Amino acid sequence: MILRRLHGRVSRLSLASAALLDAAPRALPSAGLFRGFHGAAGDGASSEHGRKPAGPLTLYRNLVSQGKLTHDSYQENVASELDNLVSRLQQYEMEMEDYHNKLYIWENSREKERRRLLVEEAEDKQHDGVWIDEKRGFLDKLVTRRRRGNIEPGVGKWVSYLNREKKLDTLVGHRPVAPVAPKGLYLYGNVGSGKTMLMDMFYGATEGVIKHRRRFHFHEAMLEIHDHMHDVWKRRDDDKSIHSSAFSWISSLPFDVKIKEWLIGEEKYKQQTQEKHILLAVADKFLVDRQANKTGASILCFDEIQTIDVFAVVALSGILSRLLSTGTVLVATSNKAPEDLNQDGMQRDIFLELLSKLDENCNKILVGTEKDYRRLIPTEGSTEVHYFWPATSDARSMYEAMWHDITNQSGGNIISVTIPVMFGRSIEIPQSCNGVARFDFEYLCGRPVGAADYIAIARNYHTIFISEIPAMSMKIRDKARRFITLIDELYNHHCRLICLAASSIDDLFQGTEEGPLFDLESFQFETESEGTKLRRDVLAGGNVGSGPSTTGLVAILSGQEEMFAFRRAISRLIEMQTPLYLERVQDVHPSFRQQPPPGLVSNRSVVPQPAPAV
Q: What NCBIfam families does UniProt report for this protein, alphabetically (predicted)?
C-alpha cells in the first residue's frame, strides 16, 4: 500500500523530474550514431545474410581503421570487455534454456500435485464434515481418494499452506538451480566519451545470440515501469473476483458450494502468500513476455541510469535488483559511478541494496577520456545544412526551402494528425507528411508536455523540423529542460532534426542579456513551491501531487546535473548534424520498419505554402 500511494503521488512527478535533467525504448533500436553499423535497430545487418554480427572489439577497430573513429585506449578496453562478454553469452543462453525447460517441468508438476492434494483435502472435508454430497459415487470415479484422516478443526490457513508446501517438496523435489550469470558492465564517464556507442555495439552483437534483449534509456524505462505497475494492480484486482480464471478449475469439480468456496479461499490464500511485491512483478514482465516463450537468457542495456527522485530510487532499485537476482545480464551507462548516483541519500537502505547487487553482478569501468568525441566526427564532404542560425530572413528562407523539398519528396500532402501517447493520451501534430513533422519551439517546449509526448513523436517521425528556437536563459529554464529531453528522445530514436535557431549550437545554453541559464545561487534559494510548479509544467499528464522537500529539490537541481544535461544536449546536437549520423537515419529509425506508422488519425488537411525563393 505504501508503494501504491507513493506511485500515485510520485508517478507523474517522476516523469516530470526525468524530463528536468537527463534524457529510451520499448524494444527500440539502439540509440546513438553507431547503432546503424549493425543494421536497422542495431540488431546486426550481417545476421540477415546468415552471418554473425561483428563483435564490439572488431567493430571498434574497423571504425578506427576507416577513420570514422579516433582511437582511444579507454574505449578499446571497454570494447574488449564487451567482446569477452558476448563470447560468454552464447554458452549462458544454452544453460538458461536448459534451466527454464527444467523449471517449466518442475512448476507444472508441482501445480498438478498441489491441486491433487487440495482435492483430497476437499474430499475429506466433504466426507467427514457436515457437507455430504449425495453424488458421492460420481466423485469416486473422478478422483482416487486416499483417506488422510480427519482434518483438525481450527487449523489455520497458514499451517495448512506450509504443510502442503512441505509435502510438495517431498513429492516433486526442490526448485532447479539457475546457472551463474556472467558479470555485466557498468560504464560511466563524461559527455561524448563513447559510453552509449560502445553499449550499442554490444547490443547489436547479441542479435541471434540472446533471445530476450531490451534496450532502454531512462525516460522510457520509467514510463514502462509506470505502465506495468498499473497493469499489475489491475490484474490483481481482477484476480480477487470469485469469477477469476485462476479459479476456473474448481468450478468443474463435483463438490457442493461450501466446499468450492473453501477451495477458492485456499487458492486466494496461496495467491496472497506468493504474491510478489509490485516491483518484483513488474521486473518479471520487464524483459520477457510471460505469454511467449520465456526460455533462454536475457540482457538489459540501460542508457543513462540516474536516480533523480524518490520514485526513481525505489523503482530502479527494486527492478534492477530483481533482474540481476534472476540472471539478467546488465550493461549500463551513466555519467556517475554507482556509489555517486544517490548523493541526496534518498531511501538509503533500498539504494544500498542496489549497490550491493551491482557490485556482485557488474564490473564497473570508467570510460575516462576527457574528450567529447562527437565533436571529432569527420564532416568532410558535407554540403547540406540542418541547423540554421541566426534566424535571419536568409536563414528562414533556406529552412522553408528544405521543408518544401523534403515534404515534396514525401508526397507533398501536409495534414494535421493526432498520434497516441502512453496512458491513453494523444498529441496533435499540426503539420505532418509521411514521417515528416513540423513544430515551433513553443508548441513543443512551452506547454505541459513531457517525455511520453516526445517519445511518441520520435517513434512516428523520422524527420523533425523545429523553428523559433531561442537562446536559453534563466527566464525560460523550464522550457530549456523540456528542450533537452526532446533532443534526447530524438537522438535516442535516431531522427533527422532540422532547426531554425537564434544562436549557434555552442551558444544555445550560454544565456542572454536577461542573465545566464545556469545560476547556482538561484538554485540554492529556489522555493519548494517554484520547484513543484516547474515539475508540473513538464508532466505528461499535467497533474502532480506534493513536491519533494526543499533540500531534496536543491540536490535534484544540482549544478552538476544541470551542466551535464546542457553539455550532453550540445554534444548530441552537434552529432546530429554530421553526415555519418544522417546517413544512418533510414537504416535505424523505427518508422522505416513499420510503414505506415501505427495509430495515425487524420484530422484535417493543411494547405502547403510555397517555399520562398532562396
A: ZapE
More confident residue, 238 or 154: 238
Question: How much of the chain exceeds pLDDT 70, in percent?
Answer: 71
Look at residue 593 in the predicted model and tell me its pLDDT: 64
Q: Which tens digit of pLDDT belongs to each residue from 197-252?
A: 999 999 999 998 998 999 998 888 988 898 888 888 887 776 656 556 667 888 87
The pLDDT of residue 395 is above 80: yes
Asked if 228 contacts 249 with a C-beta cutoff of 8 angstroms, the reply is no
Sign of the four-CA dihedral 175, 176, 177, 181: negative
Of the given ranges (75-79, 104-108, 554-558), which has the lowest mean pLDDT?
Answer: 554-558
Average pLDDT rounded to a whole number, residues 82-90: 96
Helix (H, G, I), strand (E, B) or coil at 188: strand
Assess whether 98 and 225 both reside in one domain.
Answer: yes
Q: Is residue 13 part of a domain?
A: no
- Alpha carbon distance 553, 557 (integer Å): 6
Taking CB atoms within 8 Å and a gap of at least 24, the contacts of 111-117 are 113/168, 113/171, 113/172, 114/164, 114/168, 115/249, 116/143, 117/164, 117/167, 117/168
Whether residues 511 and 419 share a domain: the answer is yes
Helix/strand/coil (H/E/C) assignment for every residue in 318-353: HHHHHHHHCCCEEEEEECCCHHHCCCCCCCHHHHHH
Do 306 and 382 belong to one domain? no
Residue 472 lies in a domain: yes
By CB atoms closer than 10 A (0-12, 13-18, 19+), residue 528 is: middle
Structure confidence at residue 145 as a pLDDT band (50, 70, 90): very low
Verify that 347 and 392 share a domain, yes or no. no
Contact assessment for residue 260 and residue 253, using Cβ atoms and an 8 Å cutoff: yes
Within-domain flag for 484: yes
| pTM for this predicted structure | 0.72
Task: Report how far Cα 182 is from the mean position of its chain's Cα atoms.
Answer: 22
Pair 490, 416 in one domain = yes
SS3 at position 217:
strand
Q: With DSSP H G I counted as helix, E B as strand and the rest as coil, what are the percentages for the chain, rounded to 5?
A: 55, 10, 35
The answer as to whether 305 is a domain residue is: yes
Q: Enter the C-alpha cell of residue 116.
A: 491433487
The DSSP call for residue 576 is T
> 92 vs 271, which has greater pLDDT?
92
Cell 520547484: give the residue.
531
Residue whose C-alpha is closest to residue 310's, from 614, 17, 1, 605:
17
At 496, give phi and psi (nearest 5°): -85, 130
Domain that holds residue 235: 56-128+155-366
pLDDT bucket at 127, cuts 50 / 70 / 90: confident
Question: What is the reported pLDDT for 289?
Answer: 54
Q: Among the three residues 366, 401, 418, which one is the final residue of a domain in this structure?
A: 366
Q: Work out how many domains the chain is built from and give that number.
A: 2
Contact by Cβ (8 Å): 578, 377: yes
